[in-house]
Amino acid sequence: MDKETVKGTMDKVKGAAKEAAGRMTGDKTLQAEGKADKAAGAARQTVGDIKDAGKKVADAIKR
């Protein structure tokens, strides 16, 4: 598993927590930050998944 995948997952968790806290307190700015963090985390996770796939292909070619 690539580091970007792990970091992306952590960003998504952080975003979900911010969004929930914003919803509970009625803080629209915090909710928006949470949504942005979740989106950034998803993108970062996708990058990590692509790197993982590339490594698997490279390993398969080496064999």
From TrEMBL:
<dbReference type="Pfam" id="PF05532">
    <property type="entry name" value="CsbD"/>
</dbReference>
<feature type="compositionally biased region" description="Basic and acidic residues">
    <location>
        <begin position="1"/>
        <end position="21"/>
    </location>
</feature>
<dbReference type="InterPro" id="IPR008462">
    <property type="entry name" value="CsbD"/>
</dbReference>
<feature type="region of interest" description="Disordered">
    <location>
        <begin position="1"/>
        <end position="26"/>
    </location>
</feature>
<feature type="domain" description="CsbD-like">
    <location>
        <begin position="5"/>
        <end position="56"/>
    </location>
</feature>
<comment type="similarity">
    <text>Belongs to the UPF0337 (CsbD) family.</text>
</comment>
<dbReference type="InterPro" id="IPR036629">
    <property type="entry name" value="YjbJ_sf"/>
</dbReference>
<protein>
    <submittedName>
        <fullName>CsbD-like</fullName>
    </submittedName>
</protein>
